[in-house]
């Protein structure tokens, strides 16, 4: 379990730098066809904000999943300790 947590953390840290760049590139690609500069800039800002929100939600779900897994593991340890 600790290995999974460490691996997840390392992947997450490595993705921090590239995720922002990835979000920005996707936003530019999505909005590049808009000819009006202010509309294009607004579209890019909205797309980046939306990607950040989605990433935050995914991180919250991952943390919740990890907390539940930790609670289950602790419950198994406690149950196993009572059998001895």
List the helices and strands and how they pair.
Elements lengths: L1 H30 L5 H46 L2
Describe the structure.
The protein has helices at residues 2-31, 37-82. It has 84 residues and is mainly α. α1 packs antiparallel against α2 (37-82).
Helix content: over 70%
* Span between termini: 23 Å
What's the SSE pattern? HH
What does the oligomeric state look like here?
single chain
Features:
84 residues, mainly alpha, 2 helices, 90% helix, rod-shaped
Summarize the entry for a quick read.
Helix content is 90%, strand content 0%. The protein has two helices and no strands. The chain has helices at 2-31, 37-82.
């Amino acid at each position: 379990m600790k290995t999974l947590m460490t691996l997840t953390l390392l992947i997450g840290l490595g993705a921090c730098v590239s995720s922002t760049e990835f979000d920005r590139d996707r936003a530019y690609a999505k909005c590049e066809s808009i000819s009006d500069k202010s509309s294009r800039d607004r579209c890019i800002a909205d797309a980046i904000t939306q990607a950040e929100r989605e990433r935050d939600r995914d991180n919250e779900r991952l943390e919740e999943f990890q907390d539940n897994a930790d609670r289950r593991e602790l419950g198994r340890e406690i149950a196993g300790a009572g059998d001895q």
